Every structure is written in structure tokens, then in C-alpha cells.
Design the sequence.
């Protein structure tokens, strides 16, 4: 090979193996023909992202739509609110643990993504039927069915991360993940509004009939249109999935050539078990990223769970319906934060690729992904402290809603950065990465939420959110450590 050919291929050789664009060398002209990472057209990728985002919405939606009905359900079952709160605790516990089982199956070539999507949504729909028909004398059945509901819907967030890893290369992954996260974050914002309206007008059972109609509709959409994307099964999408694993209406990817005719094979898969995600915790960089992501989400949970009691005290002129509408400020933060941070990630990745083409070397994954983190964390700390004291002093509700909007926006930005970085570091394990992220986020959030109300009553909202802001400030050095040493840990992991 000539010197000019070697120089032309050097940036490609430096790129991580899992993210290289397949290249065919033409010796006579030293030119290359790039083969796309996935055969899906841009509009097909976006449609797949929309389908997975809709499915991912049900985990937080099923949890948060339930909150406004707690007093009504306690009265209906002739029990205390504390006992009804047990159904929330078990829900969050299963919400954290169930992806551990489903994610291993979704990353396995023996199963794939699509069957797990359908199984999760099917289990969610059936549990909603049971909950809507639960006798008011069977409290134990309410607890059991809430566990099944969580086991069905909680895993889809992890699945959506794996699907994006299948169809999108690193340079476009940020924006797709950001938009996909909208479903997971929008649920906590619209859930209380929907739950309050349904429980107030039609009774608590209407909540579960609503969830049944929504989840069954989503199940039908996935059944009809969602293709199998696991690269260990379909490669870049050009290899047909087994007949039992195909959509009923195969509209996506119809124009592609049959990869089997071209001699293509599925990409080598890993042997994944139900607890495959546990191995991820043996990596220092993973633990750092998961902890920082869990802390940022815990702040979001604290704002959401304390909003109603805090606003009732600070703004007594607001009605219950108006307080429910205040959650929409968080929804607006999701809508802005997710795609904005995703687009910034893609721009940073393109800038890093240009640096490699000019100067050679390898793509610095951690630098490309974490370059915007200082702005996000700095803003988050300031917003948390300001939010707590504004509520404490009864400052205009418009100001507190703006701060709530900014807090949610920063939560989404931090999540998108961390999740995208994890997907880059562990190609082919998207669902397992999502499961590990989910378990840390949910369990840490459950612990803090269980005590946040006692802290708020003891020291007031101002000092409570100041303490949370300080916690974020003390967490940020972990991001700096990952920035500095992450590449070294990743290299050690790849070395034999």
C-alpha cells in the first residue's frame, strides 16, 4: 500500500472498532466507498425512534398518573394512605429491578428487541385490566398487580437505548437518544394532570382503563410496524429477521437489498444472561457515570414529589387542578432539554472527528461527550438553590415554574450526555446499559424520596434544596475524573 493510501486510512484505523464505518479499499485509485452504519433511511430511523419513545413513556406515566388518586384509593380500600404508599414503594423497586431480566434477553441473538417490546407492553396491558377490576376488599391483589405493572413497563426505557444503538452511529446518536428520552421524561409531567382529572371525574378505576387503552394502542403499533433491529440478528438491517420476529406490516426498510444475497452475516453477538448488566458495575467509569446520572435524576424526583405540598403552602390560592397544571413546566423542560443536548452532542462529535482527520490519533470519546457538562451542572446547582428559596419565600409562582422548567431541562441534558457516553463505551449492550442506568436511578431516587418530606418539614424547602444543590456540586468532580481517566479505563478494558 502506498504512503498516500496509508494516510487516507489512518483516521479510520484510529476509530473504535465497534463504531467504524465499513470501508472497501480500491487499490488502483486509493479511494474508499463508505457503507452506512444502518440501511434505514433517515425518516425510517426517526419513525423507529418515535415508536420506541412512545413505548418508553409508559414506565413513568404508569407511576405518576397514580399519585393524585392515592387519597381516593385509600378511601375506596378503607385503608390508610401509608399502606397505599406501599404500592408506590414496590412499584419503584420493581421498576429498578425488572430491566435486569428483560435487558439480557433483548441483547441476546436468541431473542432480540422486538419480542421483548411486545412482551413488556402485553404484560402492562394485562396488569391494567386486573387493576381496573380489582375488588376493593383485596388490598393484597392491588399490591401484586402493581408489581406486575412495573415489571411490564419499566424495561422499555432500557430497550429504547439499545434500539438507538442498533440503528445510529455515534455521530448521530445524540439527537436520537435525546428525542427518545422525551417519552420517558414526559410521563412524570403529564401523568399527575391526567390522573387528577380521571380520578376526580370518573373514579380511580378510570386511571387503569386509560392506561389499558394507551398501552394496548402502543402494543398494536409495535406489532404492526416495529422491525427487529438487534445487529446480532439482522446486522445493519439488511438481513431479514426470522419470520416470527417480523412486523405484520413491514414498511420500514422495504427498499433495502437482502443482505443474505450479498453474503452478509449478523454481527457477532455476546452471550447475554438475565444479569448481564451486573458485570457493568465492575468498571470504574461505569460506576462514576451511573452515580452522576442517578444524582441528577434524584433532584428531578425531589422537585416532582414535593411540588404539590410545597405549592399548597406557598400559593394557597391555587386550586388542585391548577397545581396539577404546574407539572407542565417540567414537560416543557423535557421538550427543550432532550433534543437540545442531543444536537450539541452530535456537533461535539463532528468537531472531534474533524480534529482526528487533521491531526490523526483516536477519537476522544469522553471529551466529545462531556464537553458541555460543566455548563449543565453549574446551571443545575444554581437553579436548585434558587428554586428552594423562591418556594420558601413565596416568590411569584411564575418564577418558580421557570426554575422548575430549567431544572428539568438540565436533568435531560445530563441524562442524554451520560447515556450516550455509556452506549459509546459498551457497543452491543445497549439494553444492559439502560438496565444498569435504570436500577441506579430508580433505587437511589426511591431512597431519597422516602426521606425528602421529613427533611423538608424539619429544615424547610430553602435549606432542603440548598442541600440538594450542594450534593450536586460535590458530585461534579466525578465527571472531571471520568473526563481525565476514562480513556485509560476503556483501553484497559479492551486489552486482552
Sequence:
Amino acid at each position: 500500500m502506498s504512503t498516500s493510501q496509508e494516510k487516507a486510512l489512518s483516521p479510520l484505523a484510529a476509530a473504535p472498532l465497534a463504531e467504524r464505518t465499513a470501508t472497501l479499499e480500491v487499490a488502483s485509485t486509493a479511494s474508499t466507498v463508505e457503507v452506512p452504519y444502518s440501511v434505514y433511511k433517515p425518516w425510517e430511523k426517526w419513525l423507529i425512534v418515535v415508536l420506541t419513545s412512545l413505548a418508553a413513556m409508559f414506565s413513568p406515566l404508569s407511576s405518576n398518573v397514580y399519585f393524585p388518586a392515592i387519597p381516593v384509593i385509600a378511601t375506596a380500600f378503607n385503608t390508610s394512605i401509608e399502606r397505599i404508599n406501599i404500592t408506590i414503594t414496590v412499584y419503584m423497586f420493581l421498576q429498578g429491578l425488572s430491566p435486569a431480566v428483560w435487558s439480557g434477553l433483548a441483547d441476546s441473538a436468541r431473542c432480540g428487541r422486538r419480542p421483548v417490546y411486545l412482551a413488556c407492553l402485553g404484560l402492562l396491558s394485562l396488569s391494567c385490566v386486573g387493576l381496573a377490576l380489582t375488588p376493593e376488599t383485596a388490598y393484597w391483589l392491588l399490591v401484586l398487580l402493581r408489581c406486575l405493572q412495573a415489571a411490564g413497563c419499566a424495561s422499555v426505557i432500557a430497550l429504547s437505548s439499545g434500539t438507538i444503538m442498533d440503528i445510529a452511529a455515534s455521530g448521530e446518536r445524540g439527537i436520537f437518544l435525546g428525542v427518545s428520552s422525551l417519552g420517558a421524561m414526559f410521563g412524570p409531567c403529564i401523568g399527575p394532570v391526567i390522573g387528577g382529572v380521571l380520578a376526580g371525574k370518573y373514579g380511580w378505576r378510570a386511571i387503569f382503563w386509560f392506561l389499558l387503552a394507551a398501552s394496548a394502542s402502543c402494543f398494536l403499533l409495535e406489532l404492526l410496524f416495529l422491525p427487529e433491529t438487534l445487529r446480532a440478528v439482522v446486522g445493519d438491517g439488511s438481513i431479514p429477521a426470522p419470520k416470527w420476529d417480523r412486523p405484520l406490516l413491514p414498511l420500514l426498510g422495504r427498499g433495502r437489498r437482502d443482505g443474505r444475497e450479498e453474503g452478509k452475516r449478523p454481527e457477532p453477538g455476546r452471550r447475554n444472561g438475565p444479569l448481564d448488566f451486573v458485570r457493568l458495575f465492575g468498571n470504574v467509569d461505569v460506576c462514576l457515570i451511573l452515580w452522576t446520572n442517578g444524582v441528577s435524576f434524584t433532584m428531578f424526583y425531589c422537585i416532582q414529589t414535593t411540588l404539590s405540598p410545597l405549592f399548597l403552602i406557598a400559593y394557597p390560592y391555587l386550586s388542585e387542578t391548577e397545581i396539577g397544571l404546574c407539572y407542565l413546566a417540567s414537560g416543557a423542560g423535557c421538550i427543550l432539554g432532550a433534543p437540545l443536548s442531543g444536537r450539541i452532542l452530535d456537533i461535539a462529535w463532528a468537531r472531534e472527528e474533524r480534529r482526528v482527520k487533521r491531526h490523526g490519533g483516536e477519537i476522544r470519546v469522553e471529551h466529545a461527550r462531556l464537553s458541555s457538562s460543566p455548563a449543565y451542572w453549574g446551571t443545575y446547582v444554581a437553579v436548585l438553590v434558587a428554586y428552594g428559596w423562591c418556594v420558601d419565600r413565596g416568590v411569584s409562582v411564575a418564577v418558580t415554574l421557570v426554575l422548575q422548567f430549567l431544572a428539568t431541562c438540565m436533568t435531560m441534558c445530563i441524562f442524554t450526555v451520560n447515556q450516550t457516553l455509556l452506549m459509546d463505551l459498551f457497543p452491543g449492550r445497549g439494553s444492559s446499559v439502560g438496565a444498569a442506568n435504570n436500577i441506579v436511578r430508580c433505587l437511589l431516587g426511591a431512597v431519597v424520596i422516602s426521606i425528602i418530606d421529613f427533611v423538608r418539614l424539619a429544615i424547610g424547602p430553602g435549606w432542603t434544596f440548598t442541600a440538594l444543590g450542594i450534593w450536586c456540586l460535590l458530585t461534579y468532580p466525578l465527571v472531571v475524573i471520568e473526563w481525565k481517566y476514562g480513556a485509560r479505563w476503556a483501553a484497559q478494558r479492551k486489552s486482552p
